[in-house]
Fold this protein.
Amino acid sequence: MKRLPLVIFFTIVILFSCKQPHKETTIESDIIRTFDTTTIEYSQHFSIEYKNDLKLVHIYKDDHRKDTLNTFVLIRHNASIPDEYKHAEIIRVPLKKIACLSTIYVSYLSQLQLLDRLCAVDNSQYIYDKTIKEALVKNKVSEIGSNNSINFEKLAALSPDVVFTYWEQGLSGSAKLNELNIKPVLVIDHLETSPLGRAEWIKLMAALFNEEKNANDFFNELKANYLRLSKLKDTVQTKPSVLVGTKLSDAWYVPGGKSYMAQLINDAGGNYLWNNDSATGSLPLTFENVLKQAQHADVWLNVYQWKKMDDVVLDDKRYSYFDAYNNKNIINNNARVNEFGGNDFWGSGLLQPDLVLSDLIKIFHPELLPDYQLKYYKKLE
Amino acid sequence: MNNNKKYSVYFTVLTALCILFFVLDILMGSVSIAASELFSPSNELNYNILYNIRLPKTITAVLTGAGLAVCGLQMQTLFRNPLAGPFVLGISSGASLGVAILTLAFSGSIATLGIGGKISFIIAAAVGAGVALLLVITLSKNISNDVTVLIIGLMVSHLASAIEGVLQYMSSAESLQVFVLWGMGNFSNVVWDDLFYFIPIILVGTVITFFFSKQLNILLWGDNYAKSMGINIKQTRLYIIMITALIAGTITAFCGPIAFLGVAVPHLARSLFKTSDHKILIPATLLIGIALAIVCDIITQLPGHNTVMPINAITSLIGAPIVIWAVWKKNKYS
Amino acid sequence: MALSIHNLSIGYSQQKIIAKELNLSVSPGELVCLIGPNGTGKSTLLKTIAGLLSPLAGEIKINDKNILLFTATERAKQLAVVFTQKIQAENLDVYSAIATGRNPYTGLLGTLRKDDVEIIQRTIDITGLKEFENKFVDKLSDGEQQKVMIGRAIAQDCPIILLDEPTAHLDTVNKIEITLLLKKIAKEQNKSIIISTHDLSLALQIADKIWLMNKNRIAENTPTSIVNTTEFNEAFSGKNFSFDKNSFAFKII
């Protein structure tokens, strides 16, 4: 069952949460120039505070920054720990070695040119990017399994400073990691509702390596791109209506109206059919409910493993009641999937929401980006 | 005998309830549709919802409720154990394993196998169910303790699940996803084409079971008595295993594992009808099973709620207390 | 002879033969009591005769036909058995329990015909269970339950009935009542009845024939003769007690 999280978890949970990002965080006057700094603009679930010779990182369970999941104090290797932080979770930066238990964290490292610091991943099968894979082979990066089946012996032998892993309720591994003196950083980027907020988690990774400048350069360009692209929607007259997902077992998990996916669709000038809904996660709807709401939807996105139009009705004949099926307007986010099912949409796509947005704009309004080629999306044959 | 009068009243009431629930299940759902639409749907959407979504789902609930309940009854008699049932004794897990081997061997979805796939799916599930049941019976031979037999059943069940887990570990993410979803159990994925196989198998299975009611009545007396009364135990047992494996396997193939219906319903039938005669108990469990399964299905999609609840949560929520009550009642008197 | 046994060896395997070279016979209307110390194989013998265990050697004949040649149903029409174990069926009423005995005679669905019903009614009358007819078996007293078990065997309407310690858990009155009932059935219906029992005095008083089982062998004799045999003394006397042939009771010395 160890891959259940990867397959279901990411496909469903990813659609979690959304709130308009309110700008905020660090107070400029407090910043001591011994570190490059960064400002968190979109993320609702973590903050970085710069103080005298140290950085304070908070990770929040809720999107109001109240319920703290974790607090870390980042201090340089030789610096002494101030008394008030004697009992805090200390992480010495820059990290020398890190283990990443999800593909997306490897993408952060790759983007920051820090792959040489990576000592272990959960399972390299799901990594789509060939250059990353080659680097993993070259750097002899080990595979240690994910949350429920971490190979602790191997991990202890590798002794990374930090393990990046996603947070789950009742995660059993983190106590063990603490015991082994390896700091788990529980990442909850999947709870971010804003595409930019989710990509912004690269800044947390950067802070651990004192690479804020690098991350800022990357993020600022990404942000500018994203904002520029999302303005294009203002020029369109009609917005195509959009349906997302397929039925899984007895429920059709539709991304909520304030979810990550809903925001991408709206920013791309699509008319997401559950826009009025206030959920940040996904809604388990009945088939008939989705049919009623979306039978005339213009575009149908993110349909899991379907590749051809034939797959649709072979899966369940009743999908043919949707106009999008009859108009052959089903576009899946599986253009970049490797032989093990590792999907780059949930890899580099999370770090490049501007490209995902471009894909969606191209799908909804091809005339806006005439020369653009779809990267993550592919129409069903 | 006035018992017959009592039985016919019960059967009439139960049949009426089944029909009522059936209609309710078709009329109720997250999309509200007027009852008048039932006979002349005003648009294609309503037609599709009523006749292609809700009707097959309700029929599936009927088949599952009837089939699992009858299987549960047969197993409780065969094992002379009030806790026996398809879910508890490893039949469902065995069927799952059969399907897992098939799915993962073809490393694709049920869908890509096409119609021939449906049949191979059913066969794989039935064979898996039969093997698990045979294993439990062989291992629990000469064991008269209810709990021991149950533990063996649970262990066989876990064994099957474990093998499944190992298979999943070695499989690709894509076929795994299909399988994991199927493993959650549901009534709503069955379409008319499936019912073409599903209905006759359950129908034939339950009718054959009815013709075994005499043998089942005598099996209640234990193997020695049954043999002394002219029953060929080995043969009878094998037939009953084959029927239950076919019924439970088919249900598992179409709906995934469905919890508790099989073990709970026979208790309701016994305490309502106050008889041990399978000629009465089989139709009684059948009807109660149908009614209960439809009620569970109605609860998963309560009107006014857009969301759907997992069927297994509902069947367990209703079934587990019934089983607890049955065990409590039994041990209170003995 | 209703039942005849020739050179029979019994046991669970050739390595564990419990008794051998048994030669026994029972006539119609004869009540046989099988006695002997614990563990000598009384149940094994009954199970072998009932066809639940295969003979290791020799043969068992009913009306001169080897029982191995009977089909299960044919045998069930010749031979009914009452075992020691209690049945645990829930909601089983007395009438249905006794009706179960008709199994070898009924059709596919076990529907009772007119003559089946008559036999069942007659059995209920004989066993004195009329007032309990609609009661559930598991709600009856031990004695009543045992009558139901015997009633079921009677309803099976066989020339031979085997009973494995039918009075083991009963009080004295019930014990005597049931034994007399069996005697009556043997005489009135001309059936051969074989009872295994530990109640020596009752057995000697009521049986037409005694099978004394001890040390891998069975001595067959009338009650009055068997008490004078060395086998009997061997089996039923100790350092400071013996069985008194005149009073049919044990005496402590």
Notes: The longest strand of chain A covers residues 68-76. Chain A has two domains: 4-228, 236-379. The radius of gyration of chain A is 21 Å.
